[in-house]
Amino acid sequence: MTAITDVMPGRAGVYARLAKLDVWDYYLALPLAWSIIGPAAWFQPSVLGMLALFGIGTVFVVASAVTFDDVTGFVDGSDNANYGPDAPARKLARKPLLTGEITVVEAVRFGWCAAALGAVFWALAALVAPFSLMWTVGLATLCLVTAVQYSWGLKISYRGWQEVFLAAFGIGLVLCAVGFATGTVSVFGIVQAVLFGFGPLMFGVYSNTRDAAGDAAVGRPTVAALATENGNRLFIAGLTVAETALIVAAAGLGAAPWWFSLVMLPAIILRVAQLHRGIGLGDLLGARTLGLRVHRLTTALLIAVNLVGAWS
Question: Which of 11, 105, 243, 255 could form a disulfide bond with 250, CB atoms 3.0-4.6 angstroms apart?
Fold first, then answer.
C-alpha cells in the first residue's frame, strides 16, 4: 500500500518523511476517545470541534517529537549505526537527515515550528472543549513538554524513560481527549487508555532490541541496551502477560463487560504470536510489524466494544 509520504512531492515529501506521517498509530487515540465518551456527546459540535483541533495538534506534536529524535540520532551517530548504508532504500528514506535531503538546521527549525503549532491547536481544543478542567489541561501540557523533550533538551529517552514515555504518551492522549469532552473518565475508559498505550510500547521494545548495540554506544539506556539478552526477553514476555492480565481482570472484576475478554481474544492471540516471532524466532522486524497490526486491531476492537455497549 502506498504511504502518504511516498506521494507527496518535493520538499513536502521530505518533511512528511521527517514527521513520519506514514506511522499514524498514536492518532488512533482520537477515534478511540470519541467512542469512549458515549452517544450523548458523540455529535455535539463542541466535542467534534475539540476532537478535530486536538487531533491536528497531535499530528504536529508527534511530528516535533520524531523530528528531534532524528536530529539527536543523526548528531550522536546512533541512526547511522542502526540505519547503515546496507539498509533497504525504503527504510533509509524515512531518515532524510541520513540521506542528505535535509540539514540539521532545517530539521530543528521544522521541529520547533511543529511544536509551536501543536501547542496552538491543543490550546484551541481546550478553549472550545465542553470541559477544560485543571487535570486535563495539566495532562495535555505534560504530554506536549515530554514529547518535545523526548530526545531533545532534557532528552528523557536518554535518561531511562523511553519505554515509560512510549506507553504514557498514548495513555495521555486518550485521557485528555475524553476529559476535554466529558470532564471525567470511567474506570473502563482508563483501562482502554492503558491498553492503547501498550500498543506503541509493544512494537517499540522490539525496535529497541534490534537497536540495542547502537543505543548502548551513545548512552541511550533502553531496557534492551541495559539488560542481558535473557533479561530483555523476560521484560518483553512480562509486558505481554501484563497486557493480557489487564484485559482478563477488567472483565472479571466488572470494570468491563463480561464478554470483553472474548472480543479481545484475537488481539491476545496475535500478541502471543508477536512474542513467538520476535523472541522465539528472533525476527525482530517482523515482530515490530506485527505489533503495529496488533495495536490497530486492539484499537478497532475497543471501539467496537464501546459502540456495542452504547446501544445494548
Answer: 255
Listed in sequence order, the residues at least 6 apart from 191 whose beta carbon sits closer than 8 Å to its beta carbon are: 246, 250, 255, 256
If asked whether residues 208 and 119 sit together in one domain, one would say no
Q: CA–CA separation, 119 vs 144, rounded Å?
A: 7
Residues spanned by the domain of 270? 186-312
Residue reference for cell 463480561 = 258
Q: Three cell numbers at 128?
A: 472550545
The conformation of residue 183, written as its DSSP 8-state character, comes to S
136-173 burial code (b ≥16 CB/10 A, e <16): bbebbeebbebbbbbbbeebbbbeebbbebbbbbbbbb
Answer left, alpha or beta for residue 103, where phi above 0 means left and psi between -120 and 50 means alpha.
beta
Clarify whether residues 225 and 112 are in a common domain. Answer: no
Give residue 200's identity as a one-letter amino acid code: P
Give the tens place of pLDDT for each residue, 56-96: 999 999 999 999 999 998 998 878 777 755 555 446 778 89
In a domain, 19, yes or no: no
Evaluate if residue 5 carries a pLDDT over 80.
no
Q: Which of 169, 201, 221 is the last residue of a domain?
A: 169
